[in-house]
């Protein structure tokens, strides 16, 4: 089967699969305080449908899958699903993004499955600010997961969304973690997917974040960025870990984007900023063959916007009232 490419020559080798829209936190930048309206369980892609989709995509060159959500560890029977997912021929790496609240009990099993890389969302090390940002007092559980991950030798990246007036005092303490810990701390520009249609006036773009960090750490060295990387990577001289800046709002990385996203409802997004080009769950439930499923995805990829700005302009609804929990980040 020929590999998947868009018409700009970008290969698609990486699937981000959001397994649920449910979450046990209410992060300010992701959801309103009352949460989002969850879709009924039967409308979610089933594990069987996800495994079929991954098998089809792996046959067309997808090599990496990231499990995200919502909070993936809230979906029942996640571990048996993961054990089948890692065994899919062609899939070389399965990674997970989690808020870390309920993750720790699963760490041994994840490791035994060969999952070695976990991204943990953590926007502050201050318990009060954590409770304000996520609207839940769960920092101790998240820190315990972080410690458990490091103890077992997982590759850990911390994702911190930078929000004006909320956690900019935390950037230096979070960056300080890299002094002794072999982790990547990644600062993400805030995007307008907060479930309430709240517009984001980006005060802290990646350049300002970098300048701020440099005032405290003038010795930040630029590292080479891996192919398809969404982060601009740095190391503070003498530190064990690294720092990443993710221009998620500025969208400087679209030229090398190799991602395909599938939402909990089965919407296929060829760009984070598009509306979801079609629903693969409906295609599968209508009885499509593997070849038809793949052809439908191939057609969507062929129409992929050159970058996130064009994808946003093409939306029927210009401003998004979606939550990132419905997309997967
Ligand atoms: N619940 C898991 C977690 O928080 O790690 C996985 C899903 S979450 C939607 C995936 C990532 O999206 C997290 O790292 C989160 O910080 C990020 N995210 C959510 N809303 C965002 C926003 N409005 N702007 C930028 N990043 C956002
Ligand atoms: Fe939940 Fe993750 Fe969204 Fe926070 S960012 S509300 S943890 S899905």
CATH architecture: Alpha-Beta Barrel
The total beta strand count reads 12
Q: What is the CATH class?
A: Alpha Beta
What count of domains describes the coordinates? 1
Q: Please indicate the percent range of residues in DSSP E strands (runs of 2 or more).
A: 15-25%
The DSSP helix count reads: 10
Summarize the structure.
The chain is 28% helix and 17% strand. The mean pLDDT is 95. It has 329 residues and is an alpha/beta fold.
Describe this protein's structure.
- A hairpin with an 8-residue loop joins β11 (267-269) and β12.
- This protein has helices spanning 47-58, 78-86, 107-112, 127-134, 139-152, 171-176, 206-216, 280-285, 290-302, 308-314, and strands at 14-18, 64-68, 93-98, 117-121, 155-162, 184-189, 220-222, 232-236, 242-246, 259-262, 267-269, 278-279.
- It contains 10 helices and 12 strands.
- The two termini are 29 Å apart.
- The protein has a 12-stranded mixed β-sheet with strand order 7-8-9-6-5-4-3-2-1-10-11-12.
- The protein is an alpha/beta fold and 329 residues long.
- The chain is 28% helix and 17% strand.
- It has a single domain, classed as Aldolase class I (TIM Barrel, Alpha-Beta Barrel).
- α1 (47-58) packs across α9 (290-302).
- The structure holds S-adenosylmethionine (SAM) and iron/sulfur cluster.
- S-adenosylmethionine binds at residues 23, 29-30, 68-71, 97-99, 121, 159, 161, 188, 190-191, 193-194, 248, 324-325, 328-329.
């Amino acid at each position: 089967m020929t590999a998947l490419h868009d018409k700009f020559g970008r290969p698609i080798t990486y699937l981000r699969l959001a397994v649920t829209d449910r979450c046990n936190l209410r992060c300010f930048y992701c959801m309103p305080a009352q949460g989002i309206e969850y879709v009924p369980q039967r409308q979610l892609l089933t594990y069987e449908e996800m495994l079929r989709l991954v098998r089809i995509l792996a046959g067309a060159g997808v090599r990496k899958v990231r499990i995200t959500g919502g909070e993936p560890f809230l979906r029942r029977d996640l571990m048996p699903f993961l054990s089948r997912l890692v065994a899919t021929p062609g899939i070389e790496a399965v990674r997970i993004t989690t808020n870390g609240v309920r993750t720790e009990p699963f760490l041994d099993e994840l490791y035994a499955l060969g999952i070695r890389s976990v991204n943990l969302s953590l926007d502050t090390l201050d318990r009060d600010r954590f409770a304000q940002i996520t609207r839940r007092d769960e920092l101790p559980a998240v820190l315990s997961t972080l410690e458990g991950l490091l103890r077992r030798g997982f590759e850990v990246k911390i994702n911190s969304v930078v929000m004006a007036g909320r956690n900019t005092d935390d950037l230096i303490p979070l960056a300080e973690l890299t002094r002794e810990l072999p982790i990547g701390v990644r600062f993400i520009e805030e995007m307008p997917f907060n479930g309430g249609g709240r517009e984001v006036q980006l005060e802290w773009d990646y350049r300002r974040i970098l300048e701020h960090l440099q005032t405290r750490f003038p010795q930040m060295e630029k590292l080479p960025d891996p192919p398809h990387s969404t982060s601009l990577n740095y190391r503070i001289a003498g530190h064990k870990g690294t720092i990443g800046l993710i221009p998620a709002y500025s969208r400087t990385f679209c030229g090398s984007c190799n991602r395909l996203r599938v939402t909990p409802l089965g919407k296929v997004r060829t760009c984070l900023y598009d509306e979801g080009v079609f629903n693969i769950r409906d295609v599968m439930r209508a009885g499509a063959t593997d070849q038809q499923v793949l052809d439908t995805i191939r057609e969507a990829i062929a129409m992929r916007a050159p970058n996130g700005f064009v994808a946003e302009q093409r939306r029927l609804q210009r401003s998004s009232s979606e939550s990132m929990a419905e997309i997967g980040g």
